[in-house]
Amino acid sequence: MLKEKNLRKIHRIIGLLIIIPMTITVCTGILLILRSYIPWVQPASIKQDIPKSWISIEQTYKVLLNQPKSLVKNWKDIKSIKISPSKGLIQVRTKQGLQIQINGGNGKILEIAPRRSSFLIKLHEGSYWSSNIRDFIVMPSSIGLLLLILTGIILLIKHKNRKTKTLLKQKMS
Length: 173
What we know:
It is a single chain. By secondary structure, this protein is an alpha+beta fold. It has two domains: about 1-40 and about 115-160, no CATH class; about 45-115, Roll (Nuclear Transport Factor 2, Chain: A), CATH 3.10.450. The chain has helices at about 5-35, 55-65, 115-125, 130-170, and strands at about 80-85, 90-95, 100-105, 110-115. β3 (about 100-105) and β4 (about 110-115) form a beta hairpin. The chain is elongated and about 85 Å long.
């Protein structure tokens, strides 16, 4: 069994090794959880009246081509198109990281705003830099965090046991 002194040393070393990757993971995780409340991360959906008739995907594409701020020059610039019937909205995500919200009935652009959630997801999982960073830094850091939790629990139990023994000795005296 490991001595408490060695366990504390291991606990400290692991903590120092994983502090930067875990800080990035925790901060991006918090932002991703709160993304629907923070427009900087992901623009809020603009609710519209439900249209009686909808513009087509082709018409949506033409609306994007006619708006220079959309940065859409061809189909390859579009990452996804989401149609939200209950909101009367068409949301287009571009490869340049923009979210364009279009009224589904008349094709009017309602908002063009950066959408940073994809970037934050890549940072969160470590794939922003490369798959090697994800595999050889983020994954070991996650294992390190688990070891920190386990060693912390063991240290806490040992401390409580020592404290209990001390109290018992005092009562016996």
